[in-house]
Amino acid sequence: MKVLVTGGCGFIGSNVVDAYLDEGYDVAVVDDLSTGKKENINPKAQLYICDICKEEVEEVFLKERPDIVNHHAAQISVPFSVQDPLFDAEVNIKGIIRLLMLSIKYKVKKFIFSSTGGAIYGEADIVPTKEDYVPEPASPYAISKLSSEKYIKFFFNHYGLDYTILRYSNVYGPRQIPHGEAGVVAIFTEKLINGIHPTLNHFPDAPQGMIRDYCYVKDVARANIIATKNKKTGIFNIGTGKGTTTIALYKEIVKILRENGVSIPQTFDEPIRATARPGDIRVSTLNVEKAEKELGWIAIYDIRKGLSETIDWYLKK
Questions:
Q1: CB–CB of 311/253 below 8 Å?
Q2: Distance (Å, rounded) from C-alpha 119 to C-alpha 183?
Q3: I want to staple 217 with a disulfide (CB 3.0 to 4.6 A). Which of 47, 136, 173, 208 is the partner?
């Protein structure tokens, strides 16, 4: 079976590509390398360097004739979406519409979409939050993800294109870049390794920082494999169901780095403080009971195990 992964040179996308190849799938990748890195691509995958927003992407569909489209290409920064919502929409909304139209034209069997559970629900008053909670997106990035979900449902209802939407919590792990949606692990780790004092953004009345559901990228990649094999259509939260404050995350990273021989000054035991950024939300934790019940998926990695593998990757770079 052939899978086309958009954004397959990016952080999450490249890990998903690896998982597909490990399962024996034939994989093609589309990436314009605007944020993805060519070094991330698995040599067993066929890479096409092109933009999903341009007509040239149809040539890939024509040549590869994929059975599955797994869409990870995106404008991935919440703060940038606030600064330039028009560009965010150009990539995240118009890009997916083009892919959905091509999926119908070339008879794709299923469309898998990486959405955001970490941003789409906004400041939910029920935490952990279930899929049926009415989304209140607090940034253009989250709005574009919700709009994309609506287009996917339209193409299902109108054309019969099967789909699975995976609403990720805050994903972290090897190959992560600092300016993505959940880039705080990469930011803290890279700065500490390079002797730079990291900054923790928080709301004035919440000095411990935001609360997030941190999910390791290998667990997320496994969710994509299950979604590909499973015949279920719908939306599924993908996370751990557990919240971690930013300060707890920071201290755990400092601890693991020191255990690995990285010299970190005692003055770095506490991060520099700064105010929350536009688009930030206070608490985001996902209820993942539906994914466990209907997909048979559950996160395997706890925060320490995931951070340990991530830091090991950074130290070996």
A1: yes
A2: 13
A3: 173
- Stretch among 38-47, 183-192, 211-220, 274-283 having the lowest mean pLDDT: 274-283
Looking at residues 47-55, what average pLDDT do you find? 97
Q: Does pTM top 0.90 for this prediction?
A: yes
- Supply the CATH number for residue 124's domain: 3.40.50.720
Tokens 């009971």 map to which residue? 289
Residue 179 belongs to some domain of the structure: no
Supply the residues annotated as catalytic: 141
Q: Contact, 175 vs 76, CB < 8 A? A: no
Q: How many domains does the chain have?
A: 1
Residue carrying the six token digits 């919700």: 146
Expressed as residue numbers, the domain containing 81 is 2-172+214-239
Q: Does the structure show a pLDDT above 80 at 219? A: yes
Structure tokens at 197: 């004092």
Query: In the numeric block, which tokens belong to residue 284?
Result: 């985001």
What are 3-43's pLDDT values in tens digits? 999 999 999 999 999 999 999 999 999 999 999 999 999 99
Residue with tokens 């706890």: 302
User: Is the sign of the CA dihedral 217, 136, 231, 293 positive or negative?
Assistant: positive
